[in-house]
Write a structure and sequence with these properties.
The complex is a heterodimer. Chain A is an alpha+beta fold. Chain A contains 17 helices and 34 strands. In chain A, helix 5 packs across helix 6, helix 10 crosses helix 15 and helix 12 packs across helix 13. Chain B has 3 domains: about 220 residues, no CATH class; about 170 residues, no CATH class; about 45 residues, no CATH class. In chain B, helix 1 packs antiparallel against helix 6 and helix 8 packs parallel to helix 10. The chains are: A alpha+beta, B alpha+beta.
């Protein structure tokens, strides 16, 4: 009998490789977690697949043969960058300007206090000796003042090759205005050193500002060979094991693409994985009719926050990853170092601090039995939020005594007992996550009190309710798939790509036909790319925007532009939209002031195959049948008896008043005192603040 | 308030929320203003003070602009004792008359924060305006004979009353500056930022209550004071002296102006005394006391345990006395000019304090940074036929070394401590009629040491605009070098040239010269000073510098005493041992 067709999303994180299988016939999800294998992540990938196949009672070949679409996210690129294990990378750049990666823009590392100068100097990804200037010069107008010197370029490539360089970044000034010289240099690299990974700045981001563009390109070159090697290897292994569906990669901009389309622009693999979370949030929100959402994902080492506004997922080109500026469009996710593994310590003023140091996966929280440092998970356990014998459905036994011993260390300095200290750790972690949310949302003119929070990740379901309480957020949705939140998000992502062209003009001097031509050029490019993967023209959706600012300003605001013919009226509408958005973001606008446009952008997407969450049977408000046990948990200022429910026995429409705890195999949901929980038809937990409806 | 129960969680939360609010202020200004100096280069400071002027949160800014913020806040409260109200905003740029500004281009907006009709806090943002009137655009005019030649002087003035803009006052002010439309944008951006801070702080008061918030602030002052005193107590008791000079004051040419400091450590108290500094000058290098206080305290803070660096506040200041004689170049009186105060005397104040403290505490030694090589260039852009002013920090050197690390590359100007950024040259070329010919780090152009300064910079550009003028008021360091610490070498001297046809014209700091179409401006700006004896530098680090073309083989041998084979690029161990034994 032929197996049911399936879809598979695989998310390789730092600790776990998550496989989420959707059985197309039954609509049921299967959740599989297996350990990540850092030395060759494709091993962990295949382990997860084997585990999944076993769950379906199939061989790997039969299982993979039944997969139509496989979407994959991986932290590989991020890890390569964070651990400094990228390729030996060289740079070809405009002669007399080889130091921008090092001088940067006079930027000290982020998160280092102004008053701290006792820090090691910047170590650029490409050392000075491998940054070679070649004669060429393009002007901001696009005019080529000096054509590329082929011979000197070939000599420079030969020099890099002799130094053992594996990847080259080609970064010329004003290449966004005219990429001729960069293209020529890339050709020379390919002919002189065919095995060298090469990437150019105009292909990485077609926009101005050299530090940002060059640095982004250098990051892409640095992670490129590792990403390309991994993907080629994975493709081969999948093929050998019977996979003949389409493999789509999850990228930083919140879209998915085929491997061939993205393999030469490896920088887009940063945040592959976490960037999927808001798509999942949007899907879950839609079920409840909500489109103003706050997606929070609390993992072992970090807490990621993303917004969904009116159903749209915002992106930004302002990101930093570790100490590297990355200027591609990325899903606007901010991360703070507070996760389940974050370590509690006492700082220089005798105050409690939680994170950014983390016990990570190894040794992990003290209660896992290896480490001795007190972490947020240890506090959760001591306070009774987690069960010592039902963590991951009992796969891992937690050691409460070890947690207490660890917390004792900070409790002494704080002159508190262990439980008080655990509560302080718990509260401070919630506060710093709440602060991060405020920072992310208000910075973007977004009132969190009107949002619905979606809580995912291992720790999200425990902490989300408390964070929401602190921020006066009326409702929180915890999905059953919370612990595989990013993998779930991948189901809900569109296929596509972002395009951009810098076009610096004042609005009153801009020629609408020129702008129209640039939009058409980008859209034609997008259609050609979609055609290659078999997507028909009428299924492609375009979203046009312009970056605008008041003449004289230095930062721009992205404004929506209507589709179709681009006319003088379209331009006027965009300028008006800019004023309104400026007001929304920054509390003022200046209609008397001229506006200029900088970069035209097109986001081209086609919807991924639709899917639905399965419905569970309805059992009415009474959740009595799912009552599991009563446990002492610390709520408010003391331990109280709290009802623990067995998540697998809950049915739709069940109502559970807070405080209460729901335990599922991969997730523990804590309902604070101020919230009541309703189980919805898709087995998501909807927490509503008492007194709100 | 004594019965308030403070737990460490509440203290941390309130404290960090206040820091976050002031950081958010800078973000708002950043995103909305039109002035290169503010938005791109971050010549802006934001902070939060108590109603009594005590410094609460000063996470981002320039010491000279805001660490002395307590003085204008106190005078403002004294000036408007009864009729200050919610929604008021005050503007001032006056170094005198209660304004305590460091120089006229740095305009400050103050907003009192009320809660239930009680004045509890002040927020202030101070930023360098594109223009402030006076004889020459930009506020760095070297030849003014009194403060009025430097621009419009705005004493603390209510420009928004209970939320209503006082348009007539604004118009009077804007009518006295160049590029008024641009200044207007920046003023609105700054006012908006103070409003956001007020909202954040009010939220905090709503959440935790007035008494708890105020008690937390006091508690943080006490904790910070204890920690800072413990740091000071680690310095051996005694007197430590140093001096620093600017090349000249721009009016009396080629005559150095000195500041001299004596730092006294007595147990856990530090006194920084500038008593033997030169008298105030006619030229524009003078500092008012608040500027001196900001620079001196900023320098002292740099030498404290970096683990405290996120926390400094009024508690820090309780442990430090700063004395500067009235009528001196570090505490000038009306109508002394102050245009170059931040980059000239301000820089020297920080250098002298760091030099003295580097002697006191070698494990926290910090060498001088590359000096600012700024200028204001003024002309007409033929593409638009509009006037423009070009100024930036692009051509500055890098940081000096510290004990344990080489100087950080690229960061500019000790007085800004790395808060200031450089522009993107692609944007500069599109914006201004100057084509850049070269912008790179330079070999052998920094103070050598066991840890060396960050690299110096060569910057060169051709004028594709009209004839115009260039004022080098914000440059320094053609003669006087920045100090090296604990045996490290000083920062090399800097140079600015104009190449006009075959002629090379040297332009010293604090001068005003004509520039012609087609002129090429060349700036050679040295890196910072070194820390420790260069002959003790790890030979592998010397080799790495040679490979990276930051140190020549000759300098490696002569200064670092490391012999490197030019062909194989390897260290000749025997020869190196001999050189180092000698």
């Amino acid at each position: 009998m032929a197996p049911n067709p399936k879809r598979l999303c695989v998310d390789i994180g730092g600790t776990f490789t998550d496989c989420l299988v959707l059985d197309e016939a039954t609509g049921q999800f299967s959740l599989i977690k297996s350990p990540t294998t850092p030395s060759d992540p494709s091993d962990g990938f295949m382990d997860g697949v084997a585990k999944a196949a076993k769950e379906f009672g199939e061989t790997i070949e039969v299982f993979l043969g039944s997969i139509g679409v496989l979407i994959h996210g991986t932290t590989l690129a991020t890890n390569v960058l964070l651990t400094g294990k990228g390729a030996k990378t060289g740079m070809l750049t405009t002669q007399n300007f080889r130091d921008f990666l090092e001088i940067r823009r006079a930027i000290k590392p982020l998160h280092i206090s102004l008053f701290n100068v006792f820090i090691p100097p910047n170590r650029p990804l490409i050392p000075r000796s491998l940054r070679l200037g070649v004669p060429e010069r393009t002007l901001y107008t696009g005019e080529i003042l000096e054509p590329l010197n082929d011979d000197e370029t070939a000599a420079a490539v030969a020099k890099l090759q002799a130094e053992g360089v594996e990847a080259a970044a080609v970064c010329f000034l004003h290449s966004y205005a005219n990429p001729t010289n960069e293209r020529r240099a890339a050709e020379i690299v390919k002919s002189v050193a065919p095995d060298m990974y090469v990437t150019t700045s105009h292909e990485t981001i077609h926009v101005w500002r050299e530090f940002e563009r060059f640095n982004t390109t250098a990051v892409g070159a640095y992670v490129g060979p590792a990403v390309a090697n991994y993907l080629r290897r994975l493709e081969e292994r999948l093929k050998q094991s019977g996979f003949n569906g389409s493999l789509l990669m999850m990228l930083a901009n919140g879209l998915v693409q085929s491997v061939d389309q993205c393999i030469d622009r490896a920088v887009y693999f940063l945040h592959s994985g976490p960037a999927a979370a808001p798509s999942g949030a949007r899907f879950l929100g839609e079920i409840e009719g909500k489109d103003q959402l706050l997606s929070v994902d609390m993992g072992g080492t970090s807490f990621d926050v993303g917004l969904v506004r009116h159903g749209e997922i915002p992106t930004t080109s302002e990101s930093w990853v570790a100490d590297q500026r990355v200027a591609i469009r990325m899903v606007d996710i901010e991360s703070v170092g507070t996760g389940g593994g974050s370590i509690a310590s006492i700082d220089s003023l005798g105050l409690l601090r939680v994170g950014p140091e983390s016990a990570g996966a190894d040794p992990g929280p003290a209660c896992f039995g290896k480490g001795d440092e007190p972490t947020v998970t240890d506090a959760d356990l001591v306070l009774g939020m987690l069960s010592a014998d039902f963590f991951l459905g009992g796969d891992i036994d937690l050691d409460v005594e070890r947690s207490k011993t660890a917390i004792e260390k900070v409790a002494k300095s704080l002159e508190m007992d262990v439980v008080e200290a655990a509560h302080s750790i718990f509260t401070l972690a919630n506060m710093s996550m709440a602060d991060e949310i405020i920072k992310v949302s208000t910075k973007r003119g977004y009132d969190v009190r009107q949002a619905t929070m979606i809580g995912g990740g291992g720790g999200g379901p425990v902490h989300a309710g408390f964070i929401a309480d602190r921020l006066n957020i009326p409702s929180v949705i915890i999905p059953s798939v919370a612990s595989l939140y990013s993998a779930f998000g991948m189901y809900a992502m569109d296929i596509g790509e972002d395009y951009a062209r810098s076009h610096v003009r004042r609005v009153d001097a801009a020629e609408p036909s020129e702008i129209a031509a640039l939009y058409q050029e980008m859209e034609a490019e997008a259609l050609a790319a979609f055609e290659k993967i078999g997507v028909k023209k009428d299924l492609v959706k375009f979203r046009r925007t312009i970056d605008m600012r008041y003449i004289g300003q230095f930062h721009e605001v992205e404004v929506d532009v209507e589709g179709g013919d681009f006319t003088a009226e379209s331009l006027a509408n965009a300028a008006e939209g800019f004023g309104a958005k400026h007001f929304e973001l920054f509390t003022f606008q200046m209609p008397w002031k001229g506006v200029e446009l900088l970069t035209l952008r097109v986001k081209a997407t086609t919807p991924n195959a639709p899917f639905q969450l399965p419905e569970i049977s309805s059992g009415g408000p009474d959740a009595g049948a799912a009552k599991k046990l009563i446990r002492q948990c610390y709520f408010g200022e003391e331990f109280i008896d709290v009802q623990v429910y067995d998540g697998s026995k809950l049915t739709a429409a069940n109502e559970i008043p807070g405080p209460a705890i729901i335990e599922e195999t991969t997730t523990t949901v804590v309902i604070p005192e101020n919230y009541d929980c309703l189980v919805n038809a898709n087995k998501n937990y909807v927490l509503t603040r008492k007194g709100e409806s | 308030m004594s019965d308030i129960k403070l737990d460490p969680t509440t203290i941390s939360t309130i404290w960090h929320s206040m820091q976050t609010a002031t950081k958010e202020m800078r973000h708002i200004i950043d995103r909305t203003c039109q002035n290169m100096l503010i938005s791109q280069l971050h010549d802006v400071s934001c902070g939060l003070w108590g109603a009594d002027g005590s410094t609460i949160a000063v996470p981002v800014g320039l010491p000279v602009q805001f660490l002395g913020g307590e003085f204008p806040v106190r005078d403002l409260v004294a000036k408007y004792p009864d009729d200050m109200a919610p929604g008021d905003v005050f503007l001032s740029n006056d170094p005198y008359h209660g304004g305590h500004a460091n120089h006229l281009p740095d305009w400050a907006f103050f907003r009192p924060i009320f809660y239930n009709d009680e004045l509890l806090f002040f927020t202030m943002t101070r930023a360098h305006q594109q223009d402030t009137g006076g004889s020459f655009p930009g506020g760095y005019f070297p030849n003014g004979h009194d403060i009025h030649a430097e621009g419009i002087c705005i004493p603390p003035t209510r420009v928004v009353k209970a939320g209503v803009e006082q348009t007539e006052i604004f118009e009077l002010i804007w009518n006295n500056v160049r590029f008024a439309e641009g200044v207007k944008i920046d003023n609105y951006a700054m006012i908006a930022s103070t409003k956001v801070c007020e909202e954040r702080v009010t939220d905090l008061l709503d959440n935790f209550g007035r008494d708890t918030v105020l008690a937390c602030v006091e508690e943080m002052f006490d904790r910070t004071e204890r920690a800072v005193r413990a740091e000071i107590a680690k310095i051996p008791d005694g007197e430590y002296t140093a001096e620093a000079a600017t090349d000249d004051d721009g009016t009396t040419l080629d005559e150095h102006v000195w500041i001299r400091v004596k730092v006294t450590i007595d147990g856990d108290q530090m006194t920084i005394d500038f008593e033997d500094s030169d008298k105030q000058r006619t030229g524009f290098v003078n500092c008012v006391y608040a500027a001196t206080y900001g620079c001196a305290s900023g320098a002292a803070i740099m030498t404290f345990d970096p683990a405290l660096s996120d926390y400094h506040n009024a508690g820090t200041m309780r442990a430090i006395d700063i004395k500067a004689p009235l009528g001196s170049v570090v505490n000038c009186e009306y109508p002394a000019t102050v245009g170059a105060s931040p980059v000239n005397m301000g820089n020297q104040i920080m250098e002298a304090v760091l030099d003295a403290l580097s002697k006191a505490r070698p494990d926290r030694a910090i060498a001088a940074w590359g000096k600012h090589r700024g200028d204001y260039t003024f002309g007409v852009d033929p593409r638009t036929n509009e006037r423009y002013v070009r100024t930036s920090f692009d051509y500055d050197g890098s940081a000096g070394a510290v004990w344990g690390y080489d100087g950080y590359q690229g960061v500019t100007s000790l007085t800004a401590m790395g808060a200031i950024n450089r522009g993107d040259m692609e944007e500069m070329e599109a914006r201004l009629p100057w084509r850049i010919l070269k912008y790179e780090m330079v070999e052998d152009f920094t103070g050598e040491g066991r840890w060396r300064g960050g690299p110096g910079i060569h910057w060169e550009a051709v004028n594709e605009g009209s004839d115009g003028q260039m004022a080098t008021g914000s440059s320094d360091g053609d003669v006087v070098q920045g100090f090296g610490a604990q045996g490290g070498n000083p920062s090399p001297v800097c140079r600015t040239y104009i190449d006009r046809g075959d002629e090379r014209i040297r332009v010293k700091p604090h001068r005003m010269v004509d520039i012609k179409e087609g002129d090429i401006i060349i700036k050679q700006s040295s890196g910072g000073g070194g820390v420790g004896d260069p002959a003790e530098r790890d030979p592998e680090m010397v080799l790495e510098d040679v490979i990276n073309e930051l140190v020549s083989i000759k300098a490696a041998r002569e200064i670092y005493k490391v012999d490197i084979d030019p062909k194989t690029q390897t260290i000749n161990e025997d020869e190196t041992r001999k050189l180092r034994a000698a």
